[in-house]
Amino acid sequence: MRPESARHAGTRLLRAVAYAVLPAEVVLAVALVAGVRIPPAVLVAAETAVLLLMAAEAAAYLRLRRRGLSRREAIGELVPGPVLRLIGHELRLMASLGLWVARRRHGVRAGDRPFPHARDQAALMYGFAFVCLVETVGMSYLLADAPVAHAVVLVLDVYTVLFVLGLHAASVTRPHVLAPGVLRLRQAAHVDLHIPLERIAAVRHELLFTHERAEGELNLAVGSQTSLTIELTEPIDAPRLLGAPRPVRTVRAHADDPRALLRELRHALTRARTAPSPAQGPPASA
Q: What residue ranges in 180-225 does DSSP mark as E strands?
């Protein structure tokens, strides 16, 4: 067997073992929280399997690094892409909370024009967070006599509150950005679409409150509304949350001040289309 084939075979084996061991560990933890008596031998075997899996993953990571792969490439070999994307999404949400508190914005450089888009969803997201907070208090009271279940549910409830607030924080700290040569449209922490200005065929103000799914269309609604429609000369890829490709030719988005975004975008398009082409050098002599 070739070294490359052996490496891929070993990676697939590790992933298969992880798919079996980790869900079993979760089931075991749920059973313990529910009060199910687990034989000590089963607990020892389960924890041993997890430790061996972690040791094998660490050894495989070091081996891939010695073969010249970067950290990102080595982790990508060991962890499935969709899992990495989910973990990255959760980390971006938590990082957005820090940016929100610090009143900082992500991905806005000097000379860029940011356009916020989170205002019309604020009341809804705060309402969700309040409901989750009330549910957290209620479950803490109901589970006061079950310390283990109370601790587990409390962690889940607190994380849910942080998740909801993180969704809104990501929208606040990740505005749409009009940068030289590109329009960057974003939605929370899971959509970050770069549209080159030369691929924009038309743009218009269009307030819509209903959006039917259609092939080749992307609707970045905020508070169930979009206010800007962008048509492209050719499709661009807008990957889904788990990485699946999604070619789109029409993008609808929303901004707190859509007319300002429309005006600035049209000015940028005019400048890009009327800019003189680079001067060509003298023809080569025969």
A: 182-187, 191-196, 200-208, 217-219
DSSP code, position 197:
G
Helix, strand or coil, per DSSP, at residue 23: helix
Whether the CB-CB separation of 14 and 79 falls below 8 Å is answered with: no
Q: For the chain, what is the total number of helices (H) and then of strands (E)?
A: 7, 8
Q: What is the pLDDT of residues 208-261, one digit of tens each?
A: 998 888 899 999 999 999 999 999 999 999 999 888 899 999 999 999 999 999
140 in any annotated domain? yes
Highest mean pLDDT among 53-67, 76-90, 235-249: 235-249
Q: Which residues pair with 115 in a beta bridge?
A: 176
Give me the residues paired with residue 225 across strands. Answer: 222
Angle at Cα 80 formed by Cα 17 and Cα 94, nearest 5°?
Answer: 115
Same domain, 161 and 198: no
Give tens-digit pLDDT for 156-203.
899 999 999 999 999 999 999 999 999 999 999 999 999 999 999 999
Domain span holding position 234: 176-273
Among residues 33, 57, 79, which one ends one of the domains?
A: 79
Check: CB of residue 157 under 8 Å from CB of residue 163: no
Residue 253 near residue 262 (C-beta atoms within 8 A)? no
Strands 217-219 and 247-253, sheet pairing: parallel
Instruction: Establish if 280 belongs to a structural domain.
Output: no
Q: Which residues contact 136 (CB under 8 A, 6 or more apart)?
A: 154, 157, 158, 160, 161
Point out the domain boundary residue: 111, 146, 173: 173
Are 182 and 263 members of one domain? Answer: yes
Say whether both 217 and 145 belong to one domain: no
Q: Is residue 286 part of a domain?
A: no
> For 105, phi and psi rounded to 5 degrees?
-120, 150
Domain count, the chain: 3
pTM attached to this predicted model: 0.80
Asked if residue 25 is part of any domain, the answer here is: yes
